[in-house]
Write a structure and sequence with these properties.
Chain lengths: ~180, ~260
């Protein structure tokens, strides 16, 4: 995780929450873009990676909630399971990036992302099976909704999030993960 | 995407506009519980009639109030058809292979669609009559009990309030970058879905860079002015809830109670 001041972490998280509202609206021109590309996941993952687990968790909760209240996306009926999924992404991403130190930034990022994306999907699936749709949610439905229909989103997240971290570092908006060799 | 697609604040002086945002959020949550608890025609009629009162009081034009519902028309139709044709019911009206039209399926479809429509209208009523800054202040008050378990509620409220204030700026920046990409040949309006999808990807990195640059400027300005954390900030004394706020809360609780009595 990069070393940012407390104020920077708060404001970067606020911007990520704002992007959770704005990005789905930008993607709105593509039919079914929410399910296919999951644009809201990108700022949440980024917030967890850059600002830490607590800020990532907050972004995962506040992002979809604000978006739903202000734009109706996601519909309130789907909000609870999405809150669980995104909050887990932010939380696990932040925890993993703190734990993993391979000295290779992309290895750290990919391991954290893959673990977070899996954990979020598993926990959201369990929450749907036990809390939100008890008795009417199957393993096949979980595989279909979280892996088959959303595979373009998975590819986009795994490609874009490390590219975004790298671009933000190059723009000197976040400090480098590891000290650069002279 | 210059304006929010649905639910944006419409200025007004109606009683609903004047209600405290804390009371409005609580009323919305109670009425949503009433919607989720409904399972019969009487239950849905009760919520619908109960919603007509704030709609009339708010003096909001009907068109934007139901805009979110109209926008989701296609999606709701798919939900209705999926349930009507694939729900395994006991009273089968017609069947073709794996497709089975059942009485229970139609009922289930209408139930889900009604829930979504009513919840959307409640959400719209809240956001169309409440300023986003009032929503943020109200959220700060409502999450205060979380302080007992160590959640820094002032910090959370500050982040949410900054996020809300950032939304118009981010929308403007996104629109500007979109125009720049169109000038460079991006095909956002292409009829081919894949072309349209691919054209959106180069939009993401500049949007993030621009947003983080603004965030960096804001955090520097805040630090330069001596801001350290939200905990030490002073604030205007909160006004207590007025009589009409309590009346609105009582009305919502009554509707919720009647709903649960109807289901027994």
């Amino acid at each position: 995780m990069s070393k940012l001041s407390a104020v920077q972490r708060s404001i970067f998280t606020a911007v990520c929450i704002g992007l959770c509202v704005v990005l789905p609206m930008a993607f709105h021109a593509i039919p079914n873009a929410g399910t296919l590309f999951s644009p809201m996941h990108i700022p949440v993952l980024l917030s967890g990676l850059i600002c830490g687990w607590s800020f990532g968790f907050l972004c995962g909760l506040a992002g979809p909630l604000l978006s739903s209240l202000l734009t109706g996306m996601p519909p309130l009926a789907y909000l609870p399971s999405m809150l669980v999924e995104l909050a887990t992404y932010g939380l696990v991403c932040g925890l993993m990036i703190n734990l993993i130190r391979t000295e290779k930034i992309y290895a750290d990022l990919y391991i954290s992302l893959v673990v977070a994306l899996l954990a979020g999907r598993i926990i959201a699936g369990v929450a749907r099976a036990l809390l939100f749709s008890p008795g009417s949610y199957s393993f096949a439905a979980w595989i279909t909704s979280y892996f088959i229909t959303s595979w373009p989103g998975l590819v986009i997240q795994l490609t874009l999030v490390p590219a975004l971290v790298s671009a933000l570092m190059k723009a000197k908006l976040i400090p480098p993960w590891y000290p650069t060799k002279a | 995407m210059r304006t929010l697609p649905a639910g944006q604040y419409l200025p007004g002086h109606s009683l609903l506009h004047r209600l405290d945002a804390r009371a409005k959020i609580l009323c919305a949550l109670i009425l949503m519980t009433a919607v989720i608890g409904a399972s019969s025609l009487w239950g849905y009629t009760l919520v619908l009639v109960a919603l007509l009162i704030p709609i009339l009081i708010s003096r909001l034009p009907l068109r934007p109030t139901v805009a979110a519902v109209r926008g989701m028309g296609g999606f709701l139709l798919v939900i209705l058809l999926m349930n009507a044709l694939f729900f395994k019911g006991e009273t089968v009206l017609a069947s073709w292979g794996i497709i089975q039209l059942s009485h229970e399926g139609i009922k289930q479809g209408f139930r889900i669609v009604s829930n979504v429509v009513l919840i959307l209208i409640i959400g719209n009523l809240l956001t169309m009559t409440t300023l986003p800054t009032q929503v943020a202040t109200a959220l700060e008050s409502l999450i205060k009990p979380l302080k007992l378990i160590g959640v820094p509620t002032e910090e959370v409220a500050m982040i949410i309030s900054v996020a809300i204030q950032f939304i118009p700026t981010l929308m403007e920046a996104t629109e500007l970058i979109k125009m720049a990409q169109i000038a460079r040949g991006a095909r956002f309006e292409s009829k081919k879905l894949s072309e349209r999808a691919v054209s959106f990807l180069p939009l993401v990195v500049p949007v993030f860079i621009s947003a983080f640059r603004r965030a960096e400027e804001l955090s520097l300005a805040m630090e330069a002015r001596g801001y350290r954390n939200a905990k030490n900030r002073t604030r205007r004394q909160k006004e207590p809830l007025a009589l009409h706020d309590y009346a609105a809360l009582t009305f919502s609780v009554l509707i919720c109670l009647i709903q649960f009595l109807l289901q027994r």
